[in-house]
Amino acid sequence: MKLDVLCMGEPLLEFNQIPDNAINTYRSGFGGDTSNTAIAVARQGSSSGFLSKVGNDYFGRQLLELWQREGVDCSHVAQHPEGPTGIYFVTHDSDGHHFTYYRRGSAACHMTPEDVPAELITQIRVLHLSAITQAISDSSLETAFAAIQRARKNGVLISYDTNLRLKLWSLEQASIVIHRTVPLCDVLLPSLEDATALTGLRDTEAITEYYLKLGAKLVVLKQGANGVRVADGKYSRHIPGHNVKTIDATGAGDTFDGAFLSEWLRQGDPFLAAEYANAAAAISTTQYGAVDSIPNRSSVTAFLGRKL
Fold first, then answer.
1. Boundaries of every domain in the chain
2. Under a CB-based contact definition with an 8 Å cutoff, are residues 8 and 147 in contact?
3. Mean pLDDT of the chain
4. pLDDT tens-digit map of 205-234
């Protein structure tokens, strides 16, 4: 049986600050951009898997249990004997949410091209990864490109989120790698903030045109509460966002990615998929945590006033 989406990257343990009048409490959860996306795909009723390494520690075992509960195939997630499972903290203030990471030398940093099973790549429809996957280590970067090349040789679609994290590498390094990856993509999922930093452009139509000319077949430019611009080389359309009471935007972009990919595979229409994903991402911002906030399909369709 083919998996709809295989995600690869670094999973993390999350500690999310829950503001209180008297004290600040941190609630534990799970994160890691592509892991969040794999769970979002599964919660929309599509099949997903995850390819990575976790630590041979309590947190790594918790992540394996999480994927099993969520129905995400984790049979190709290895436990590294020395590298730990990475951790991050989320804090909140008037400017939004902020991340502090403790991930240096994490198990996922030790991924190698040999960790990408050739037979697995033939059994998927979409390979999804992000620039974070490429930024955490040289070997992970090499592994990402190896997986992309194997996928392309087998007719697998490539989905890529730029997810720019300048604490991991310089803007110059990121630009080189990301713009080397874009021509290999079937669907590119940058945020407006990322794209502006990487290209110097601010106009959404100019950005999508830039990435289409660079070689991406489909560009879905995420603009948070302002919605998305979708461009496929023939049509370019802005799809408005939703007005909700946002309390934590952690993982909203990852939720968008998973919901988009699931609906895109289901309907074959990127514009309808973006409308659906907009709703999923909006819902996710109304709760704390990257994973706890990801809605399932029934919640999204109810939000949109549809019937399952």
1. 3-11+33-81+109-303
2. yes
3. 94
4. 999 999 999 999 999 999 999 999 999 999
Per the annotation, the verdict on 57 as an active-site residue is no
pLDDT tens column, 151-178: 999 999 999 999 999 999 999 999 999 9
Residue tagged active-site, from 33, 194, 254, 257:
254
- How do 157-161 and 236-239 pair as beta strands? unpaired
CA distance 278 to 236: 16
**Prediction pTM value:** 0.94
* Superfamily name with CATH number, domain 3-11+33-81+109-303: Ribokinase (3.40.1190.20)
What is the torsional sign of CA 258, 264, 267, 270? Answer: positive
Pairing of β 219-222 and β 228-231:
antiparallel
Q: How far is CA 5 from CA 8, 71, 121, 124, 266, in A?
A: 10, 12, 10, 6, 12
Count of Cβ atoms closer than 10 Å to residue 237 Cβ = 13
Helix (H) / strand (E) containing 161: strand 157-161
Is the pLDDT score of 21 beyond 70? no
| Helix intervals (H) in the chain | 33-43, 58-70, 118-121, 131-135, 138-153, 171-181, 192-199, 204-214, 252-267, 270-284, 297-303
